[in-house]
Amino acid sequence: MAGPFSRPSSRAAGGFALAPPPVHLPAVRTLTRTTHDRRTIMTDTSNSGFRTERDSLGEMQVPAAALYGPQTQRAVENFPISGIRFPRRFIHALGTIKKAAAQANVEMGLLEADIGDAIARAADEVIAGTLDGEFVLDIFQTGSGTSSNMNANEVIATRATQLLGRKVHPNDHVNMGQSSNDVIPTAMHVSARIALHHDLVPALNRLRDALQAKAIEFDDVVKSGRTHLMDATPVRLGQEFAGYASQLEHGVRRLGNASAELAELALGGTAVGTGTNAVPGFPALAIRKISEGTGLEFVEAENHFEAQGAKDAYVSASGALNTLAVSLLKIANDIRWLASGPTSGLAEITLPAIQPGSSIMPGKVNPVMSEAMMMLCAQVMGNHVAVTVGGQHGNFELNVMMPVMAHNFLQSVSILANGCDAFRTNAVEGIGANRERCRELLEKNPSIATALNAYIGYDEAAAVAKESAKNYESVRTVVKRRGLLSDEQLDSVLNVREMTEPGIPGGGVVGGGGG
User: Which fold has domain 444-507?
Assistant: First the structure.
């Protein structure tokens, strides 16, 4: 029997042969040695595709054309795990932070102006996305995100060197006054706020407005309400859609509260929250530059130990996304059920036919946009679980699950924003009301008997409702057969439109309740 450290079989359990792992042999190279600021760089001049660089751990083979350096390459080789990289918003935030830090260091007389300008120009390229191909690291890496901070430092330093014509150092210049332990938490908050404000909230507002427009359009449609999936007293279709719109309005408010918490930045706490190696005044100035660059107001953290040792604000904001996913799933599922049919379901609304629904059943059309929305909401909920677990791993002075937290949060924002727009344009805006079907189902709804409580009492009304359901006939028919109320009284009491508003139908003075 194979032990826990035995070499794995080359054949999988199902009998399929597994390909052997690829073997990469270094090519023969001609190397030229240069030294810059205590860092030895050996450039490949033999067109073999690699250059040799040296850091504190020794030599590393780095792709010749890469702007990143040895620390990034070490992480590339250490973490070949998922192929999932940081999203655009996070890279944008890293560039924003590095530019702001360089400008602050120049203004404080800590960094030569030409070097600071070159760093800012290189950081602008990171912000613009021009250098996204240089950010090559897997999100499953060191839990502090140090590898990605150094990825940014090395890329910006190399590009700044090219722009300036003399050496810019990734640590001494680009990372001046900073640590990965305050840069990555800062990038998490900056990227999250930008994504919320520029991506998700606008998409939510557009979907809310579309739902509200349908609420107005459908305000005249009286239909059966449903509780426990069973018939209940009448509602207006417009009221249901107004409820959906209100859910999103509340969701936007929750995101606003979450964004306010994310305005606090860890920058300035450096390694453990004490601010060692950062000159007093640097954090406030750099954060002011970040605010100016993003158009959003950021402030220095009230307590740097909280900002770096915990990620409570981030978990809370992810919770707002999770709540939003719950709201959207409810809305999508309701719309799916309301459109079910066309002959054996509710069929109270119609959805746009945007694609064939079956490879075997001709003419079938499915609620695909609702299903897509439901799946992405499930993904957001799963992402929140990982963010929650990650938030628990703030061990002493540093959280060590930040990369996966950042990825999951930003993915949730992205798919929610894109999903809301797709759901709006491909489903909600094209929804129609099946007024005849709503009327048909409402007429046979035994819960209309609730309006009789004030006139014949709960027990008698219950008997009417049961007889109506048993015989599949209207409440009006049963009441007339029993001789309980006159036609004039029935017209007043069983006014279903009136039942969709507060008060006693027909002007009665007592009533009953229950779900």
Answer: Ribonucleotide Reductase Protein R1; domain 1 (1.10.40)
Q: What are phi and psi of 176, to 5 degrees?
A: -60, 125
Residue 230 host element (H or E): strand 230-236
Q: Looking at 7-21, 202-216, 273-287, 375-389, which range is the least confident one?
A: 7-21
What is the C-alpha separation between 63 and 484, in angstroms, rounded? 90
* CA dist list (Å): 421 to 355, 373, 453, 507: 18, 10, 45, 45
Radius of gyration in angstroms for the set of CA atoms belonging to the chain, rounded to a whole number: 32
Residue 260, CA distances (Å) to 42, 253, 263, 313, 315 in order: 48, 11, 5, 9, 13
Strand partners, 11: 17
Domain 182-435 belongs to what architecture?
Answer: Up-down Bundle (1.20)
- Catalytic residue numbers? 228, 358
User: What percent of the chain has a predicted confidence (pLDDT) above 70?
Assistant: 89
pLDDT band of residue 510 (cuts 50, 70, 90) is low
Chain-centre distance of CA 38, in angstroms?
43
The CA distance from 58 to 41, in Å, is 11
| H or E segment and range at residue 125 | helix 113-128
pLDDT value for 507: 74
Tokens 């677990």 sit on residue: 389
* H helical segments located in 347-457: 368-391, 402-426, 435-443, 453-456
| Domain edges within the chain | 88-176, 182-435, 444-507
Fold of 88-176: Fumarase C; Chain B, domain 1 (1.10.275)
For residue 342, whether the previous peptide bond is cis, meaning omega lies within 30 degrees of 0, is yes
Q: Which of the residue ranges 23-32, 63-72, 104-113 would you say has the lowest mean pLDDT?
A: 23-32
Rounded Cα distance between 418 and 410, Å, is 12
Parallel, antiparallel, or unpaired: how do β-strands 264-265 and 299-300 relate?
Answer: parallel
Residue 187 backbone dihedrals phi, psi, to 5 degrees: -65, -35
Give residue 483's identity as a one-letter amino acid code.
G
* Strands lying side by side in the sheet with 58-63: 31-36, 39-44, 50-55, 58-63
Q: Residues 447, 448, 452, CA angle at the centre, nearest 5°?
A: 110
The encoded tokens of residue 438 equal: 């709503």
C-alpha separations of 428 from 11, 320, 325, 390, 405 in Å: 50, 23, 17, 36, 32
From residue 365, alpha-carbon distances to 340, 344, 376 in Å are 10, 14, 21
Q: Quick check: 93 and 194 in contact, CB under 8 A? A: yes
CB atoms within 10 A of CB 26: 10
